[in-house]
Amino acid sequence: MTTAETAPFQFFSLQVDRTRRLGPSLVRVTFTGEDLKRFASGGRDQSLSLFLPHPGQEAPVLPPLDDPDMYAILGAWRAMPDDERAVMRSYTVREQRTDPNEMDIDFAIHAETSAAGAAGVGPACRWAGRAKPGDRVVVLGPAVAANTGVRFQLPEDADSVLIWADETALPAASAILEWLPAETRAQVFLEVPYSGDRMDLATEADATVTWLVREEGAPSAVDAVRGAELPGQAPYVWIAGESGAVKALRRHFVRERELDRRRVTFVGYWRKGLSEDALREVPDETQEEA
To answer: What is the secondary structure of 3-64 as a DSSP string?
Structure first.
């Protein structure tokens, strides 16, 4: 029988320890809390659900979290009034540390996060920009490292990797690079809005990183990767970010390059002109057959 203590995904109450601006488009928030002792990130592109308070609330408003049925809690949360219940957004664990118990989440601050088109007006962007030590949040995340929230699954026979990510997927791509086994051949394309978003990335892989900076006139996602070599006989591709770009890239690799679609992992993190709430109301076009 699954209990609240044995479920693979659980709720964790955390608080902000500190924040740091990484560049024009990223803010890192470091969280702490006793509950982190139970948290078990699988690394790479580990996803979680982050519940945030509305402005004026001291903590995110959620139903009691002691019910062993995660879906019952989520159902009760959805039944709450929109202007009262906690704001929920999906994020990647940038890094988890155990001594001391800390977890980093990097927040992308960019104009397209809201239909209004103004930079930083989305609720998560606004919260991250104002976060201070002691601010409280709740996370729905993994209690076991081997979990379905890790999408980057390198096949045993893979002899090269190609990664494409925009600024929203940059934290995941950075964590993947740190995880890649030594000498793994990797072609990495990172699309960001501004020159100041470039950063040093740690990896033991044999990685070639190409920064695609939009303010410098970077080519489209497909044009950027069209000439990229996929060395070896068994490449693996991971693409994540804006849904339209992800869809185009998947078609490029599956249709034009004729890669086995099972070796192309693709995740649409957001879509231009839509909030995350609105995105859940429309079909995910990145999931259609290429």
So the answer is: -TTT-SEEEEEEEEEEEEEEETTEEEEEEE-GGGGT-----TT-EEEEEEPPTT-SS---S-
**Structure token digits, residue 130:** 């104002």
Q: What percent of the chain has pLDDT over 70?
A: 88
Q: Which residue range is the domain that position 30 belongs to?
A: 9-142
One domain, residues 110 and 172: no
Residue 279: its H or E element: helix 276-279
**Mind listing the pLDDT tens digit for each residue in 148-176?**
999 999 999 999 999 999 999 999 999 99
Specify the number of domains making up the chain.
2
User: Is 4 a domain residue?
Assistant: no
What is the enclosing helix (H) or strand (E) of 136? strand 136-142
Cβ proximity of 24 and 196 under 8 Å: yes
Residue 250's SS3 state is helix
Q: Which two tokens mark 290? A: 């290429």
71, 176: one domain: no
CA dihedral 166→169→171→172, nearest 10 degrees, is -130
Residue 237: CATH number of its domain: 3.40.50.80
Band of residue 276 on the pLDDT scale cut at 50, 70, 90: low
Q: How far is CA 249 from the centre of its chain?
A: 18
The pTM of the full predicted model, rounded to 2 decimals, is 0.90
Contact between residue 183 and residue 206 where contact means Cβ atoms under 8 Å apart: yes
What are the pLDDT digits (tens) for 175-226? 999 999 998 999 999 999 999 999 999 999 999 999 999 999 999 999 999 9
Judge if 188 and 130 occupy the same domain: no
Inside any domain, residue 168: yes
**152 lies in a domain?**
no
